[in-house]
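Hey,

The postdoc asked me to send both predictions to you directly instead of through the lab channel. I've kept everything plain text so nothing gets mangled by the mail client. Protein one:
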Amino acid sequence: MKFYLIDDDRNILNILKLIITNRKLGTVCGTSLSGSDALEDVQTLAPDIIIVDLLMTDMDGISFVRKAGSLLPRTAFIMLSQVSSKDMIASAYEAGVEYYIQKPVNSVEVENVISKVSRQLSMQRTIRKMQHIFMDEMPAASPEPEREAPAAIASRTVLTNILQRLGISGDTGSRDIITAVEYLLEHDGQINDMTLSELCGRFSDSPKSMEQRIRRTANTGMVNLAHLGIEDYGNEIFTEYSNTLYNFEQVRREMDYIRGKSDRHGNVKIKNFLNALVVYSQNRQ
């Protein structure tokens, strides 16, 4: 991972650089004491992760993240600050910040946060890569029943754990989701050219009903995430799955709906949801 560091305190920059270098978290490709100067650098350097201070004289961190985020949509942002205001922290997350680190800087916390953000970026990149690789149509025939292998048991454990964390393991569609993802895992593919209805038709005499159960359950998961985000923007489950299983902008729209700020619900892209579950299962077996 490539890091770019921004803080108007040179000592903080040096401390962060030492933590990243000594703990082998990645490489620091640049630093800056100014948000305005940093905007020019990051467009050229294209860092994976930018760590930026909230309060700076020429440009505050939130303004920087908004501007840099539009230029570097695949870069992750971590914010530093002594400010503990919940409203300020919420504004930072809404601007596009992945995590928020309270000053004074603690090396253990910095390492933990960077590790989490790095895992999220790797997951997102793996999903995008697999979506480009597995574009061929899936086989028309279902495989013959076989004795369940250890890998299948492991993947089911991973899936069940994720659904539990989303609060949907007890929903009727959770079993359908696991069935669909296990099929995709067995065929080393993702649901791209195939429609969800066609996939459900491989397991059910009523594919439309199965599809509706999957959509309803996946949507419930997003609603649960939105409530978590409203209660605690830094919640680990919220920050991880709102950027992988779901689209963060859609989760935020659902949060606005719950708050009464919008009359539109967030939208769940079921194909992306299932594809992400495939990647989680493959990476954690």
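Protein two:
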Amino acid sequence: MSQQTDMTELHWLFDMLQHIDVGLVVINKNYEVELWNGFMENHSGVSSTNARNRSLFDIFPSINASWLQQKLDTVLALRTPIYVSWEQRPYLFPFKSYRSVTSISESMFQNVVIRPINNANGTVDHLCLVVYDVTDVAVNKAALSAANRKLDQMSKTDGLTELNNRSSLDKAIKLTFDAYAVGNSGPHTLVIADIDHFKKVNDNYGHPAGDVVLQDMAKILSGGSRRGDFVGRYGGEEFCVLLLNTNKEGAFTYCEKIRKQVEENTFKTNKGDLNITVSLGCCELGKQHSSIGEWVESADKALYQAKEGGRNRTVIAE
């Protein structure tokens, strides 16, 4: 009766190993397969009969042999398990994701545990590789990271123009002012640009046309700026450009280039083509500015002078 019970339990164990939803591979010291369960059969397409007594590296020639052999030899020598996370290496065995229709990944992400198998006399000459399918976890984490990056980008970006928003602009101005105040940088010039008679665009052509003008204006400002410059939407039809390592003469050259480009550009909207102009005020940061507010106000006053002087011009704050 005891022998029959042992045989039944052995049958149960064997059946469980074959149908458990993890991969089980037992190899000897020569890396030859001695056990290959149903999970491995289903995902590799290699039957246990064909896998048995073959080198693991013959079955999967794409596996990084030197990397895995080092892991296997370490487990044999130290008799201590090793855990390989999908975050370290997405997968060990090149299996396709069986949820590829609903998953963003074509490959199965895997966690792998390499365990020593002790013989009755305490020696170790076999290893067991346990393979867990963690594709759902990996894909969900990737989706969450992408969503967080998107949210972070949205928190810094103006939705209409895709430029830096006011909050990002204020932070950049503060960092620049603080660095200059302790003598760590300079010169820097702040530019405020305002579309002339923009209210008439909205009144006569509608807000959708006005939005197109704002978007095209943003492209002109971005396209005319250098990699290190900080371009943002200040509010309404006003834009702000922080020209780092640029004095007022260099800023004037930049502003005039932008002004002429806007003047010569045709803004195409669903209500017809538009021609607009822009006024710009700029101010180089100096020791006379005791606060950020004074620096911004100086640039704003220069813009006001450009408006009062007839618009479509650049004024440098003195």
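Summary for protein two, as requested: The chain is about 45% helix and 20% strand.

Thanks,
C.
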